[in-house]
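Deliverable D5.2: sample structural annotation.
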Amino acid sequence: MTERVADSTIFSNAVRGSRINRSALNLLQNQIITGKKINSVADDPRGAARVLNLETTLEQIDQFERNIGLARATVDSTESALGDLNNILIRIRELAVSADLEDGEFPLIAEEISERFSELLAIANTRVGGRYIFGGFITDSAPVTQTGALTDPAPIVAYSGDSGRILVQADESSQVQINVTARELFFGSTDTDDTADGTRVNIFNVVQDLYNRLQDPVTNGRPVEVLDQLDAALTQVNQTLGASGARSNRLESTVAQLQSLRVVVERERSFIEDADLVEVITELQSRETTLQATLSVAGRIIQPSLLNFLG
């Protein structure tokens, strides 16, 4: 014996099916409009959480890249200043050598040495964006000041910065130092007494010594005797230049790694979040067909039921 299903049950099922299909159609239409298959947490709670984590990672990458951009401005300016400093010291060394051959040119050579000394001071007080790059953490005032004449007893240059190491967060696990201080570079001091340590030299003192030898070689000694100190100064600068170049290379390498990571993260986010429009449109058409069939069934049930009621 076949059990008869009440018309009301069939009608209720049809209405329920219609609601489900309309809800699915609304979801699919939103996916087509936005191009996203996750438009709210309710669409896919686990997927939405994963997308949120990926977006946090992308924000971190953005911040690291901004950090590196600012760091590179300082590192590039430092390298440029170091290159200029190296060229000046090479010229000063050439003058020291020529002085040994041209005794009568001492006054002219001394005059150029004085000019080069001023250039050294200018490099020590290099600014980028209004900030002094060789003063450590003290960036709003000139780190180096001339306190006396070249003919006065050394030292005639004072350092008013500090030994601050400026670090930049380049990625999630590492920081990169982006600065060098005039204390270390020009004064040859690795502590806080501004006195050259070990084989390092005070570059200002060396150039001042050369100037005074040119003024009075009989009393102060021959200019050529400063060559060893000038070579030590050049070594000091080149070592710093090499360290700065290594920092620059590390920043460039980190940028490349961050860009590769960005591609991976964006691809994963797209896989989770982005809708396959061909698939969504196919599903939409299928749902529309199902909805029309459901409404058709419900319509056929309503008409005879209503006639029975009227009859």
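Annotation notes: The longest helix spans residues 45-99. Residues 7-37+274-310 form one domain.
The annotation will be released with the project's public dataset once the embargo ends.
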